[in-house]
Amino acid sequence: MKLREHQSQNQQLRRLALREMSLLEHTLCGAGRILMLADATGVILDSQGDNTFLGRARTVALMPGATWAEQMTGTNAIGTAIIEHRFLQVTGRQHFFDENCFLSCQAMPIMSPSGGLAGVLNLSGDVHISLHSAGRLVRQAVAHIEHSWVEETATDIIVRLHQHPAWLGTPEEGVLTFHDGLLTGANTHALVYLGLAPLAIHSARWEEIFQQRPQLGRRELHRLHHSGLFYAEISRAFAAGARIAATEVAHVGPESLADLRDEALRRAVSAENGNLSAAARRLGIHRSTLYRRLGKQ
């Protein structure tokens, strides 16, 4: 299958991941590191980073269009993360093939809101260059991607929760979506915090997870049959189309897209009683983006 076909089949994953990759690009240029997005089969979809190291990576086919599934290239961060569904670091001679031993790689799986493997985000560099905090960088980027993805798919109720109230409104919070009481989506953080398996998505109901009935606003939630206490913010979801339109870059052309985006922004600010920071979190965009857009209205 050609690269463009793989990219076309993973449009939503790429849109969210490329946004995060672009934000990190300034930390990679001149640092001998590259960031890559692969799909669930190990095909690299996109890459960004230091141009010099990109050239070296191409000599071992570490580039868009190449397949890094474990059965094709042996032990490597992307392929092994796909198999094990967890963060992986593969450095130097831990790689199966000798020609890949100059690499130091950190890879984190990206899970879709339905609990399935969607892809992998991988950071690679020269084995002799310190990649201090690289693993944290990759994990945080994936947390942002999963957080935004779950919110975008919400159609009824969104639950944001954490065991510490200060972490609400950050990418470290768990996010779940419900429709008519059925769990329809969750990020990895939410599943881990609540001790739920991905199979719970589209099968578990609210009353099988929490002791309390769903009520909008900030409140405490207790996990059913467990002693765990969570601080949660429960709200109504926006239509997915309005949420996506609010985060897209405006293009020259029909005014309908701009109107839809502006309406989504106004609704978010209204729903948060004028709190712009909370409105930005609700929309999954940066506060500066919201401020800038509101200033143009």
Overall radius of gyration: 20 Å
Largest sheet: 5 strands, antiparallel
Count of folded domains: 2
Find the structural class using helix and strand composition.
alpha+beta
Q: How far is the first residue's CA from the last residue's CA?
A: 45 Å
What is the strand content?
15-25%
Strand arrangement in the largest pleated sheet = 2-1-5-4-3
Helix fraction by DSSP (H/I, runs of at least 4): 25-40%
Number of H- or I-type helical stretches: 11
Query: Which geometry do the CA atoms define?
Result: globular
Order of helices and strands: HHEEHHHEEEHEEEHEEHHHH
Written account of the structure:
This protein is an alpha+beta fold and 297 residues long. It folds into two domains: 3-147, GAF domain (Beta-Lactamase, 2-Layer Sandwich), CATH 3.30.450.40; 150-295, no CATH class. It is 38% helix and 23% strand. The chain contains eleven helices and ten strands. The strands form two sheets. Strands 2-1-5-4-3 form a five-stranded antiparallel beta sheet, sandwiched between helices. The protein has a five-stranded antiparallel beta sheet with strand order 8-7-6-10-9. A hairpin with a 5-residue loop joins β4 and β5. The chain is globular and about 55 Å long. The N and C termini lie far apart (45 Å).
